Amino acid sequence: MQRRLLDLLICPRCLPAEKPLRAALREVRAGEVVEATLTCPKCRTDYPVSDGLATLLPAGATEDHYNSSDRLAGYLWSHYADLEGDPDAHRAFPAWGELFAGADGPVLDAGCAVGRLAFELARQAELVIGIDRAAGFARAARTLARNGRLGFELISEGELYESRTARLPDEVPRERVEFLVADALALPFPAGLFGTTASLNLLDRVPLPRLHLAELDRVGRKAGATLLLADPWSWAAGPAQPEEWLGGCRSGQGAGFGRDNVRRLLERLGRPPWRLADNGRISWTIRHHRNHFELIHSDYLLARR
Ligand SMILES: C[S@@+](CC[C@H](N)C(=O)[O-])C[C@H]1O[C@@H](n2cnc3c(N)ncnc32)[C@H](O)[C@@H]1O
User: Fold this and answer.
1) 52, 60 Cβ separation under 8 angstroms
2) What is the largest CA-CA distance in the chain?
3) How far is the CA of 26 from the centre of ligand 1 (A)?
4) What is the tally of structural domains in the chain?
5) Mean pLDDT split into 10-residue runs, the chain, 305 residues
């Protein structure tokens, strides 16, 4: 973890109180914290930094189903195959990146997976932090930040695999990007830190979608801030109980479409309120194997305040 982040992190367990963490550094190399323990002075929780990767999960958070090698390979394909000229690749990340033109840093990408959006945004902001609850994803993204490339084995068919490489173009300023293991429902950052926040395809995956919106609202700057929220609204009982959904219900807080409800929530409940600057739809694909792809349309809401 880059040393400059030490001054920014707070205890996710003590929220809404914002308690800065104390660092006991064991190994620091070229501005990078390699081994350390970050401790909350109030609740005494220890958060490890191990092999450069900081884990700042609140109590009770568990590893999730994204931590499998086939899933990891699938996401590496989805995020980076366009850069390799794969004819089946989608072009959603450059399209999402363009929506942020003129947006200010620092930038937070919540649920960053293997990091592509964070690298797109590093073209214009000096500090971009990607957080994900899946340690395997955050580790892969950190490897890309350090080495610019990462090899992986992608399913071709059945038990057959092909070797692929995710590779970042040389001009991407990788040193501006950092990845942490953290929970989008208890962000380890103080209020108002970020000029830009992004949450792509995460809202329908968390148990408390409204809390995720409240956390994005909390860490976004009070003025001169941009927020991009994109989601396909694939509400399902696995990630969240139907009474927590923000769309797709016949009655209750989730009555109607997620796109309309989330826009209303941002406009009415934001402190201060957000104003819709743009909206639309961007499509992307997940690859299951070389002849099987899943097409997903994500509505996006670009809001400012
Ligand atoms: C559907 S994927 C989207 C990933 C990426 N934003 C994209 O659009 O390709 C959802 C991501 O959110 C992560 N995630 C799920 N729940 C999370 C949580 N509570 N906090 C942080 N990340 C979470 C998953 O590990 C996964 O990487």
Assistant:
1) no
2) 55
3) 30
4) 2
5) 97 97 97 97 97 91 68 97 97 96 93 98 96 96 98 97 98 97 98 98 97 98 97 94 96 96 95 97 97 97 97
Can you tell me the distance from the alpha carbon of 43 to that of 12, in angstroms, rounded to the nearest whole number? 10
Q: State whether 40 and 126 are in the same domain.
A: no
The single residue listed with the structure tokens 């109590």 is: 59
Question: 13 is in which domain, residue-wise?
Answer: 1-56
Stated as kind and residue range, the H or E segment containing 99 is helix 92-99
Which tokens sit at 245? 């959904």
Chain-centre distance for alpha carbon 175? 18
Encode burial over 34-73: b for 16+ CB neighbours within 10 A, e otherwise.
bebebbbeeeebebebeebbbbbbbeebeeeebeeeebbb
With a Cβ cut-off of 6 Å, ligand 1 is lined by 64, 66, 111-113, 131-134, 137, 183-185, 200-202, 205-206
Q: Are residues 153 and 245 in the same domain?
A: yes
Which residue's alpha carbon is nearest to atom 9 within ligand 1?
A: 113
Ligand 1 centroid from CA 287, angstroms:
17
How many angstroms does the Cα of residue 184 sit away from the middle of ligand 1? 9
